[in-house]
Amino acid sequence: xxxxxxxxxxxxxxxxxxxxxxxxxxxxxxxxxxxxxxxxxxxxxxxxxxxxxxxxxxxxxxxxxxxxxxxxxxxxxxxxxxxxxxxxxxxxxxxxxxxxxxxxxxxxxxxxxxxxxxxxxxxxxxxxxxxxxxxxxxxxxxxxxxxxxxxxxxxxxxxxxxxxxxxxxxxxxxxxxxxxxxxxxxxxxxxxxxxxxxxxxxxxxxxxxxxxxxxxxxxxxxxxxxxxxxxxxxxxxxxxxxxxxxxxxxxxxxxxxxxxxxxxxxxxxxxxxxxxxxxxxxxxxxxxxxxxxxxxxxxxxxxxxxxxxxxxxxxxxxxxxxxxxxxxxxxxxxxxxxxxxxxxxxxxxxxxxxxxxxxxxxxxxxxxxxxxxxxxxxxxxxxxxxxxxxxxxxxxxxxxxxxxxxxxxxxxxxxxxxxxxxxxxxxxxxxxxxxxxxxxxxxxxxxxxxxxxxxxxxxxxxxxxxxxxxxxxxxxxxxxxxxxxxxxxxxxxxxxxxxxxxxxxxxxxxxxxxxxxxxxxxxxxxxxxxxxxxxxxxxxxxxxxxxxxxxxxxxxxxxxxxxxxxxxxxxxxxxxxxxx
Length: 580
Hints:
By secondary structure, the chain is α+β, with helices and mostly antiparallel strands. The chain has 17 helices and 22 strands.
């Protein structure tokens, strides 16, 4: 599977550094086996075998929005990686390349032309056509669309007018024939091909459903289809999805009979890996040392495009204006935010709860990116409780009644609510570690109603619940470093609700005409990182190293900085026992 530019927006729900994926049943025994020696000799020689199943696990319930244009988190995305493909892909070097379509960019004409490759079908047997691409853009630009992908179609001429209800169609979409579509753009930027929406929608399958009803439709929730190597056979909501091989897959018939995506308690991961109940998962950090010792498991360690953070809730999302409003006074004082950063032992968190697997960061562009600023150009928020105390004193946060807790500059009690996700056996001790760091400098910090299940956590965050003040989360960034989608005034996923005119200008400059010069573009992003490092709307913790555990029976599993589900049609198992 491949990397999508908009993962910057939608993989928000990636759990913090300890995301675990596991499942509680193995199904490869259901396939017939060949007792002869031929298949065994082939497997030993490394020749792919047909048949068998693989269990992929995850530690959180999935929502079941099994349509790329609608899903919200990694819980659903991993399922979609198995059942969908994109028009363009991202390779291991984080560069775009053709996927289901060839593409051509005409900078002067401001157009992008997609030409669909031969032999691509939806899981119901219907061919993929250019109308499916156009339809996806129409759905996402529809006034009734409540998803978050509009920024990925906004550059098409007429998309904004269509969204505003001032046009009956998107004027910039030109279907030439069943396989060719030309998109006329308002402008062409250095990352245009990364940012353009790349997933068609099956028009023939969705056409009778109102856009506002799509998220709850049977076509999305119960019987989703895609163009990928595996098609959905059975769904147990929030618990399991069974997928079976799609024989007419355009890149060739997959080797496996199917894949089971299953949710189990992360605390059972090591045992489930050892006894073969789980084949592939992201290893929980708390069990890393145990899993590393397992003889039947191979570990893949990859520097992540993601980063972990503690955010400050600075305002709210104005639904009518579709923009962030920075109107919460509590954390407007920059010195307060900086003091709270110095109070956090980031290396201690990384060592204690992630086995040191990661690198501390000072801005939200991970070290794996070519646009990362040199640390010498940024303020380093090393763990320094004494410095934190001095900054708090300077900002007016002092203990005026000698009760051990600091009051705000007006002499009123100052407490800090902290939100964090449940899901692993280290979720609670990690949250308590953060709280204790703040308490050590006199900040009366507490969990906001206890740990929250992942979907509840983000529902609460997105709703800008008044009780949410600080929160620990993680992002998986895009292959392209453009911060659009997370940090601008009109970005819904700017959960901090941080609004800064200079930041918006720099972000826009990073995709300007001048930014076709990569060196210039990096300089712009370095300036942006210096700004956000100073303003600190979020405490940037570290960029993790993702650890994927793979049973040695599963072959051809290729991992990189953004996924363990890349080209799953090539996966095969050594104990398949021949083809079925």
